[in-house]
Amino acid sequence: MPIDLGQVDWLYVAVLAVFAFAANVVANLLPFKRRGIAAILAAVLFAAIFVFWTYYPHGLPLPTSIAGQKSPVTAVVPAAPANPPRPSNPITDISPPPSTSR
Question: Once rounded to an integer, what is the mean pLDDT over residues 75-102?
Fold first, then answer.
């Protein structure tokens, strides 16, 4: 199976499923049996709830995104030296060489 189910954050999936269910219930109550409007309203409500949950700093201990998980592979970036070494060439200006025309 291409998806490793052991790596899935099931709490995050459950929270999103609850958001989708709540958005669908509210959307189906409001438009009075118009399925197209209910579907659009459910999508808008879910997007609003998802953005609020993910980006609003509410301080709840529940997961806010799967991007916060540590990946098993980490890249090591070398640090830049504090004082770069000075070049051994004493010339400090950059000018074109004199032209030699024949």
Answer: 72
